[in-house]
């Protein structure tokens, strides 16, 4: 406060950078389309800026065990603002992030398929895909992220 008890507040009008369900739907649709092209059913998760789940789809035939993995890939990618593929490279024995998978109460997943979502250069969420090979998961997550 200052100047006779007047509180000056900065202009708080800024573009909303939150990932919402309406943002997640086209992203999931693009990832589903890519999964169909690959011939591999996938689990696809979208997380918001806080790493919280916004939406998840388990395609017909996708493994139940990959639901958790896809959600954790989205969390991991948002938590560290890096693809899980890149994080995995640095999390191998002798790497600078070796052991990181044990952090965050076991929520960190270091398999390819997690990609941060950016708006105006800022990470605002992430997508996580699981079920196929690492290359398939990364390609599918990339397709989804491209729709964001």
From TrEMBL:
It comes from the Bacteria. InterPro entries: GlcG_carb_metab_protein, PduO/GlcC-like, PduO/GlcC-like_sf. It holds the Pfam family HbpS-like. This is Cobalamin adenosyltransferase. It comes from Myxococcus xanthus (strain DK1622).
């Amino acid at each position: 406060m200052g100047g006779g008890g007047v509180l000056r507040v900065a202009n708080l009008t800024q573009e909303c950078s939150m990932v919402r369900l309406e943002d997640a739907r086209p992203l999931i649709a693009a990832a589903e389309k890519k999964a169909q092209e690959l011939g591999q059913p996938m689990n696809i998760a979208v997380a918001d800026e806080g790493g919280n789940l916004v939406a998840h789809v388990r395609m017909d035939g996708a493994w139940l065990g990959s639901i958790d993995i896809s959600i954790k890939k989205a969390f991991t990618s948002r938590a560290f603002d890096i693809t899980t593929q890149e994080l995995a490279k640095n999390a191998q024995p002798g790497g600078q992030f070796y052991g990181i998978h044990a952090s965050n109460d076991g929520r960190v997943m270091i398999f390819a398929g997690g990609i941060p979502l950016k708006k105006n250069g800022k990470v605002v969420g992430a997508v996580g895909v699981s079920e196929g090979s690492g290359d398939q998961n990364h390609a599918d997550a990339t397709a989804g992220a491209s729709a964001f």
